Amino acid sequence: DLRKQARQLENELDLKLVSFSKLCTSYSSGRDGRRDRYSSDTTPLLNGSSQDRMFETMAVEIEQLLGKLTGINDKMAEYTNSAGVPSLNAALMHTLQRHRDILQDYTHEFHKTKANFLAIRERENLLGSVRKDIESYKSGSGVNNRRTELFLKEHEHLRNSDRLIEETISIAMATKENMTSQRGMLKSIHSKMNTLANRFPAVNSLIQRINLRKRRDSLILGGVIGVCTILLLLYAFH
Prior knowledge:
- The chain has helices at about 1-35, 50-80, 90-140, 140-200, 200-235.
- By secondary structure, it is mainly α.
- The protein is elongated, with a radius of gyration of 50 Å.
- It is a single-pass type IV membrane protein.
């Protein structure tokens, strides 16, 4: 009798779980179809929904059936532990374990389907809120949208200007470093020349003579250019 009751409850649970799973699937597809048909969220997604009421009713029914099946399994366990059935104890324990496995599978399937349904419903709530925000933003005045666009363009221009200034500063810093390096090189060459001049007086004297000759040649060349200029001016005026 207990096995008959357990099988009957298991059959009812199997049918209920199949319908429960179909309800979850149809709920998801129905919401997706409604989003495709309507671009704006004009009606609430869940308030007064018949699918939500059906979900709550079926969940309660399945929980009641699971409770009844758990009670039947407990009674079968008490029967197998009684002292009057020692020869059939192994077979009965196998049968009891099979019914317990079925109960565990049904319980796991129910909680999994219920969790999926609640997750889909919560996601639909969030998506509905997001769509409302999007629609309210789209329905805003064109002046505000234009002002926002101008602000974005101005912000982009400021970013570009800031980037150009940073590039200019980087180039100036590199130029400064290069000039500092060249200045150091020239100082090093000058110090080396002075060291050589101090070490070799003859070289220093030779350099002074070269400088004096260069000055004399410059004076001679300047005098010749001056005389030629005066002669040209006298010729031009006469």
